[in-house]
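Reopening this one. Same input as before:
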Amino acid sequence: MNKKFIRFSAIALLFAMNTYAQDQEPKQLDEVVVSDSKFALSKEKSGKVIVKITSEDLKKKSGQSVASVLSTVAGVEINGNQSRNGKDLGLYIRGGRNHQVLILIDGVPVTDASGISLSYDLRLLPVEQIESIEIMKGASSTLYGSGAATGVINITLKKAGKKAIAGNAYMNIGTQTVAKKANYSVQDYNQGFAVNGGFEKVNYFASLNSTETTGISEAKPLNSNTKFENDAFSRVNSLVKIGFTPTKKLSFDFFANYDRMKNDFDAGSFADDLKNFSLSEQFRVGFSPKYKYNKGEFVINSGANVINRDIFSYGSLFQAKSRSVNVDAFNKYEISSQLFVVTGAQFQFHEMSNMSQYDAITNEVAKFNMIDPYVTAVYNSDFGLNLNAGARYNIHSKYGNNLVYNINPSYTFSENLKVIASYSTAFITPSLYQLYSPYGDLNLSPEKDATAEVGFEVSVLNKKLVLNAVAFQREEEDAIGFDLMTYKYFNVNGKNKAKGVETMVSYALNDKVKFNANYTFTELERQSRILNPKHKVNAAVDVQATPRLAFNVAYQFVSDRYLEYTTYPAPTYNPVLNSEILKDYQLVNGNVRYDLIKNRLNIFGAVDNIFDKDFVESRGYSTRGRNFKLGLNFLF
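Same output, byte for byte:
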């Protein structure tokens, strides 16, 4: 695809579609959450501190990636989000690893069956397609199955509006440079458009996004006088959603999307490579019918994806293919105005194949499936007690049966104070790669996880000041590690524990000035090669200076991180030779937004790492210095 055509297509659309321009209707803020019951539930009746990133919140972070946005949430660390665009990401929630976090897109789990950990690659998703994000921390396998051990990230994509035709076209340009070596030429391009609308019983949404970035080498030279080649990253995303509502009670939603990502990468820490690259293509389709009746609602969330990946590394080509199918059928039945029950069953199928000059795995061998019936009851009393409890029975084609459960009581003493507690269990099956690759072990056991937490939420001054805090302890058993001496996956003996505290505070000084901050303390019994800081602070001030002008200043502190060079301390591990301390760092970012033409054209400017701090996020890899980004968004 011609890059110049993609790059400037958004600008052309600004004028070509102007004849259809109409004023945009203001959106109402959503005051409900869905992650802890799969159905809309008032935040006041939820027994979890669920962080919701709304569309308005995303506007305040214009120019940032999905990973950067998530990394500002208490308890969430995404290693790689401060590196050059395209760096692989390590997703850590409460001291867990990528495969212990389940990612949903419009309620459907997304996975890569050919990946090392079955986890979804957040680099595939442009933030411009997202309407909102919910983050629910803690073991959540009761509702969501394997993989939901430390948290669930529930991403809702944008949907159709009520007009016959509406949409937007946007373009962002920015720099991409390391600290202390300023090169402020434009190296980062992101552009796209979306159209949506509805008529009679049909609605639609379609979008196209393209990103191209260069300017930074993935690996960092050991010697400041050495120059490494810049590594490029490019991505194309397209999405189509169609809804059909034949009656008020019945609706059908369909989606299809295509993602293509090409990424240069280096040979590892402090090691350049001129030829390495990866190319991945993802095809996803899904279907979600919903039926409402007098006492409840029945939903089927289904999705299937195919991923093809070529990786050229160390002079040889590695090709991988995967296919996953997920069908989750569940029903909400209201027994009374205070009690409803969610019953469901989920089916998952995963298979992979790969081929290289050293080895080959066929999909006839590398596959498994799961069937999980589950039930959850939600009780909301009229005297302040709320209770969420349930269980899931996992039937795995290879690992037999697993039972997980949760109990989550909370109590609202008044309109201003709520206390919460929960105990929940989870399980994580080994990935197909960990079982069937040359490094795998067919005798691996599933990981088992349990999380206990207790906390409170208080609001005062007419809810202008809100404070919440949660203390947790998580315990995992049979964790899967990788021994760098034997090059084999193995189950770690004994139990690994993590504990911590997460606090959040928000204060609305008035309608124009708002402040929010969070602090996370996480302590791991075993570091497990997890670059999770012990202390992390995020703070931000949002100012709506005029009806059209707004700006945001954000601060982040990341403490020292203890790096082990092996996934888990194996029998061959030497703590002196195989560990290192990565020093703490602080960043300040800024963002300004202005409605140039009200409800029609807005622009933004952003500065990351304002003070141009040189720091280490991952040992031997580059990090971004002071960088600028400018963007415009035209609404029609």
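So the earlier flakiness isn't reproducible anymore. For the record, The chain has one domain: 3-159+172-209+222-258+271-635.
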